[in-house]
Amino acid sequence: MDTKKNIYKPEFIPYRPSIKDKHDLSTNETLCYGFIKFYAQNNDFYFSSKQFWEILDVRPATIDNYVYKLKKKGLIKTKTKRYNDGNGNIKSSRLIYLPSSSQDENTISLQNENSTSSQDEIKDKYKKDINNNKEKEQKEKKKIPYKKIIEHFNKIADRSFNYKTQTYRDKIKARRNEWYELEDFLEVHKYLYDEWTGTKYEKYLRPSTIYRKSKFPKYVDDYKYEKKKKKSASKKKKKKDVAKKEKKNTVSREQAKNILNTNKNN
Least enclosed by CB within 10 Å: which of 25, 37, 91, 252? Predict the structure, then answer.
């Protein structure tokens, strides 16, 4: 197996957010899967663990964690093959292929430059990786003001929704991941309360409706438009008030003549 001429450094890595969400993968695990899925379609490519490390910017041993998790999720399959490096040395390569493919097609090979980790070591690293991800998620949750958002809504709409309800938290987190700010939530609350109170839509004043992916962006656009319109109307009113004030402080030509004549006579 001539690996030197087949070494290839990719210019991009396909990223699939839907796979990340569906299988609960980390960002790097998703990148790893995107890389494997795309380049597995080309049978002539071979990669070392070191190359993977350079591409994904992680330690070579961490790749074992990613591959182990992807395999456990059923996204890939692996098989180890041994080969002669041409100098009388026996080395091993790990063939990685997609579940819908045979081992002879849609396959990439990770050339192991050093001895491979044992399965127990890989499992231990995998568990540590899972724990690290959980810690990151906990930190991320602390950053999202679930309580502040729901309590503000309750205060505005006179409701009593629980900020710990997972459905609401999931929707808030999803919208925050779409780069909506805290201000957007608070402004939408006030806008919809003013718009819907006393109408047939009042019954829909609830987090599960307001924070829905198909609805929230529109509500944000609506409140921003209304805010801009009110600001514009306020400016016009201010101009009118200034004009009225200026008009009160002015006199007509006829009035000016009368004033001058009065002064002359005096």
Answer: 252
Domain count, the chain: 2
Determine, yes or no, domain membership for 16.
yes
Q: Which residues contact 164 (CB under 8 A, 6 or more apart)?
A: 146
* φ, ψ for residue 72, nearest 5 deg: -65, -35
Q: Which residues of 218-238 are buried (b: 16+ CB within 10 A; e: fewer)?
A: ebbeebeeeeeeeeeeeeeee
Tell me, yes or no, whether 13 and 124 share the same domain.
yes
Alpha helices in the chain (DSSP H): 17-23, 27-39, 49-56, 60-72, 119-143, 146-157, 166-177, 182-196, 207-210, 216-248, 253-265
User: Got the DSSP string for 88-103?
Assistant: S-EEEEEEEE-TTS-T
Rounded Cα distance, 207 and 27, in Å? 28
Q: Domain check: are 14 and 133 in the same one?
A: yes
pLDDT tens-digit readout, 50-109: 676 777 677 766 777 888 888 888 888 877 777 676 777 777 777 777 776 544 444 445
Strand partners of residue 92: 82
Q: Is 48 helix (H, G, I), strand (E, B) or coil?
A: strand
> In 10 A of CB 213, how many CB atoms?
10
The whole-angstrom separation of Cα 45 and Cα 61 is 21
Q: Note the pLDDT tens digit of each residue in 216-264.
A: 999 999 999 998 888 887 777 777 776 676 666 665 666 666 666 676 6
